[in-house]
């Protein structure tokens, strides 16, 4: 008869442990091949991914070092692949950019290619005003982590009581006037822009637009949200509190709230 400490049909010790179950052996000391580790790091292009995150935030090595507690020289070597990062260091860097560690080891994203159908675009008014002087559509809202923001904008004819609203933002702006006429004020200077004219300017200088005719003016606008090199203190992170982007990134409303843009004003 089997006792409380034995199982029928299996030789056992008095402790009741089954003879066909063996303890898991202690793992042997594991050694990682240094060259294999470096090859893995190079394959994942971790240094390039760190540099991409840093430049996207317009952040220097010294600033990133302040946030992570790592030296600028070490970060430079890390970005160029001359040193192998530890998980602790990667975690510090990932936290600065609101990423998790998987970001550095996931496969590279596929080449970006997006089509924005005209019927799917969204018409939005100038932000921050009760009586908008222009409406715009994002032409790149489906592109993740985009480096530039293209827009189609329609500027309404001016009327009494509605003044242009100056604004500023990091980076450069490009405007190509498709139709009509537009007065573009940049700093203290106002220029008349007509159909077919193109303008490229430093967007950290205050600027505003005003339709210069009785009919709406339409334009293609592209903004690059990066500080302009060599422009002194206006490129620092201390833009005035009222500084804002001309045409902010679009947050899509529900499908039922989408509005088709008319090719011309009614």
Written overview of the protein:
- It is a single chain.
- The protein is an alpha+beta fold.
- It is built from five helices and nine strands; from the N terminus they run H-H-H-H-H-E-E-E-E-E-E-E-E-E.
- Helix 3 (61-68) crosses helix 4 (72-79).
- It is elongated, with a radius of gyration of 30 Å.
- Residues 1-22 and 232-266 have low confidence and may be disordered.
CATH class of the largest domain: Mainly Beta
Number of domains: 2
Decide which structural class fits the backbone: alpha+beta
CATH-defined fold name of the largest domain: Jelly Rolls
Let me know the largest β-sheet.
6 strands, antiparallel
Q: Shape, please?
A: elongated
Report the span from N to C terminus. Answer: 98 Å
CATH architectural category of the largest domain:
Sandwich
Mean pLDDT: 76
Q: Give the topology string: H per helix, E per strand.
A: HHHHHEEEEEEEEE
Strand order within the widest beta sheet: 1-2-3-9-4-7
Task: Itemize the secondary structure elements and their pairings.
Layout: H1 34-44, H2 46-56, H3 61-68, H4 72-79, H5 87-96, E1 124-125, E2 134-138, E3 149-155, E4 172-179, E5 181-186, E6 189-194, E7 198-202, E8 207-211, E9 217-224
Antiparallel strand pairs: 1-2, 2-3, 3-9, 4-7, 4-9, 5-6, 5-8
